[in-house]
Design a protein that fits this description.
Elements (H helix, E strand, L loop, with lengths): L15 H27 L12 E3 L7 E3 L24 E8 L1 H4 L9 H11 L6 E6 L7 H12 L6 E6 L29 H12 L1 H19 L7 H8 L1 H17 L8 H8 L1 H20 L4 E5 L14 H13 L3 E4 L1 H7 L14 H18 L14
Parallel strand pairs: 3-4, 3-5, 5-6, 6-7
Antiparallel strand pairs: 1-2
Helix pairs in contact: 3-13, 4-10, 8-9, 8-11
């Protein structure tokens, strides 16, 4: 039997495959490193890392996660407050502060967030015999669905007299182009937050990479698009059922103007407009707004929408997101909410009102401005008058 021989140029040399693999991996690494450097320089995306030392899994799956009781500066019920009794004394006027990281007061001390400052201001020169309590239900990274669920399951048991929703523009839903992204380790029937130090370290490193954040974001977008794509083809009768004629009319005007002009938004700001102009994101958002307003109306609770801005440099045409602000305030009014837009006062205060290197979260001075204006407007509007009969939790 003749022995098979290989041509000299096809003789397999030891280590050749490893060298090729090394070159491929090196090229891949350099490409990813270049992409990471470009993303950090041109369009960085912030992230919120959820760890078991600060957060816990919520019993309500619609909430997902919540502040861990007694962790950091949370009280025993997972609110960013000192201890409060669930039963409200007759002399107490109780206000619920709802929202995300802005209401929570990311980057400032607990009592320096607008909820804590508002409580101090109201008690400073309030009527004799009345004590004001402002309960901070804010949680970093929450969208409107989580905020409303937290209000129903955690807030109503405190028998509030007034609700203030600290609204930021990405509350329309989690994870669109920006700002707060949570990395959860989902494990069936187990704590989704790993307690192993090495796993927490790996998760922290992963969320520091701009590429990883965008992969997670795209996965969440894809899931949301598949779930809600049926709304794109819904007819007018169905949309009327979902939104009502007044909301539908306002949305058609807003989305039509966006389609024609884009409101002259820059590339980085366009997603904020787009998610209010698209049905798959707008319809569920409005449903949650209507749910919150309706729950408050059923209990006789005034509900105030507090709007804070994206901190941008002064532009010749004014605040570039004002059209979006106006639309959100219009929807809030149609749904029966009162509102306070803090965009002007905070932007007029300039850099002192925002945390250094941040475009979202007010500084201590910014929270003080919000609390000052809230206290003034609440007094002038008569919303601080105790109701004739105490409210009771619903659901």
């Amino acid at each position: 039997m003749k022995k098979k021989t290989w041509p000299k140029d096809r003789v397999k040399r030891p280590g050749a495959a490893w060298k090729r693999l090394f070159l491929v991996l090196t090229a891949l690494f350099l490409s990813l490193a270049g992409a990471e450097a470009w993303l950090r320089a041109v369009h960085p995306m912030g992230a919120l890392l959820l760890t078991s030392d600060r957060y816990q899994v919520a019993e309500n799956p619609k909430i997902g996660y919540e502040l861990k009781p007694l962790a950091t500066d949370a009280n025993s019920d997972g609110l960013r407050n000192r201890e409060r009794t669930v039963d409200k004394p007759p002399s107490v006027f109780r206000i619920l502060a709802l929202g995300d990281s802005v209401t929570y007061g990311l980057g400032v001390e607990r009592d320096k967030a607008w909820a804590g400052k508002l409580e101090s201001l109201l008690n400073l020169d309030g009527p004799a015999g009345v004590t004001y309590e402002v309960l901070n239900l804010g949680v970093p990274g929450y969208g409107i669905g989580q905020i409303v669920e937290r209000f129903k399951k955690k807030g109503l048991k405190y028998h509030p007299d007034l609700v203030i929703y600290g609204y930021w523009l990405n509350d329309i839903g989690p994870g669109f182009d920006a700002i707060e992204l949570g990395l959860l380790e989902t494990r069936k029937n187990r704590d989704i937050f790993s307690s192993r130090p090495w796993a927490r370290w790996l998760a922290r490193q992963a969320t520091r990479l701009q590429i990883t954040r965008r992969v997670l974001l795209l996965a969440r977008r894809f899931g949301a698009a598949r779930k809600d794509s049926r709304l794109e083809n819904a007819g007018t009768p169905r949309l009327l059922d979902l939104m009502g004629p007044e909301i539908l009319g306002a949305w058609r005007v807003f989305s039509g103007e966006y389609a024609r002009t884009g409101f002259h938004a820059t590339r980085s700001l366009d997603p904020l407009f787009r998610h209010y102009a698209e049905l798959p994101t707008f319809v569920p958002w409005n449903a949650r707004m209507r749910e919150l307003a309706g729950q408050c109306q059923d209990l006789g609770l005034p509900c105030v929408l507090l709007l804070t801005p994206v901190f941008l440099d002064a532009a010749p045409g004014g605040y570039p997101l004002q059209a979006l602000n106006d639309f959100i305030l219009q929807v809030a009014e149609i749904n029966g909410m009162q509102s306070l837009d803090e965009t002007g006062p905070l932007l007029e205060a300039g850099s002192r009102a925002v945390r250094p290197g941040d475009r979202i979260h007010p500084s201590e001075a910014g929270h003080a401005i919000i609390a000052r204006d809230l206290a003034r407007d609440l007094r002038n509007s008569g919303l601080l008058e105790p109701p004739a009969t105490p409210s009771t939790p619903g659901g």
